[in-house]
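Journal club prep — side note

Before the paper discussion, L.F. wants everyone to see what a predicted structure for a comparable chain looks like in token form. Sequence:
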Amino acid sequence: MHELIRTNDLVLISFVEALMASAEIHVFVADRHISATEGSIGLFPRRILVAEDDAEEARQVLIDNGLAAELRP
């Protein structure tokens, strides 16, 4: 799996999920349910992951939609 973005921004996560769905790229949001153990304070960032084979296309989708600054190196 390739990490695209790490963020606490739930709106950004939803937007990325929608973009990936429209590009037919399967995305996995790691640590989505960590809030149950942290008391829902949003302390731990969620990680947006895609398969290695889809990483280049997924990164390009995010760049094309103005999210280049959000990408992990």
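L.F.'s comment for the group: The chain has a mean pLDDT of 91. Keep this in mind when we get to the figures.
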